[in-house]
């Protein structure tokens, strides 16, 4: 049986982000579904506290098969590409979010996520 295909670390440069601006983006774009603490088994979306370094699809949240099998740990680079178009980066993800096209907004959001 061939090994599972995993998503390699993207070869991208993540701009420096502003965590304060990232908090505003989080509040506008993410907070309706995501929180930093809580029970992943009953939440509408996975909690994001400690996201950087965590294996994709590894909490108690009922992730899609594709997210559980993505085979990477969340990094700034993975988030930078994922947040542009989640359903393209992890085909089959349950995340119903069109994405953030603007690179600086993604960097700002990542800076905020990295501090929580």
What features would you describe in this structure?
It is built from five helices and no strands. Helix 1 crosses helix 5. The chain is an all-alpha fold.
Summarize this structure as a short list of keywords or feature phrases.
mainly alpha; single chain; 116 residues
Percent helix among the residues?
Answer: 25-40%
Radius of gyration, rounded? 14 Å
The backbone outline, from C-alpha atoms, is globular
Number of helices: 5
Low-confidence stretches: none
The N- to C-terminal Cα distance equals 39 Å
SSE string, helices as H and strands as E: HHHHH
Structural class: mainly alpha
Average pLDDT = 94
The total beta strand count reads 0
Biggest sheet character: none
Strand proportion: under 5%
Short précis:
This is Cytochrome c domain-containing protein. With 116 residues, this protein is mostly helical.
Topology:
Layout: H1 19-29, H2 65-68, H3 76-82, H4 86-89, H5 103-114
């Amino acid at each position: 049986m061939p090994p599972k295909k995993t998503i390699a670390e993207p070869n991208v440069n993540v701009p420096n982000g502003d965590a304060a601006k990232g908090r505003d983006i989080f509040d506008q774009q993410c907070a309706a579904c995501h929180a930093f603490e809580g029970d992943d088994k009953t939440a509408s979306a996975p909690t994001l506290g400690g996201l950087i370094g965590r294996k994709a699809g590894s909490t108690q949240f009922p992730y899609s098969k594709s997210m559980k099998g993505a085979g990477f740990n969340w990094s700034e680079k993975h988030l930078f590409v994922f947040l542009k178009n989640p359903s393209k980066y992890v085909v089959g993800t349950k995340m119903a979010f069109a994405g953030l096209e603007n690179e600086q907004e993604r960097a700002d959001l990542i800076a905020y996520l990295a501090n929580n």
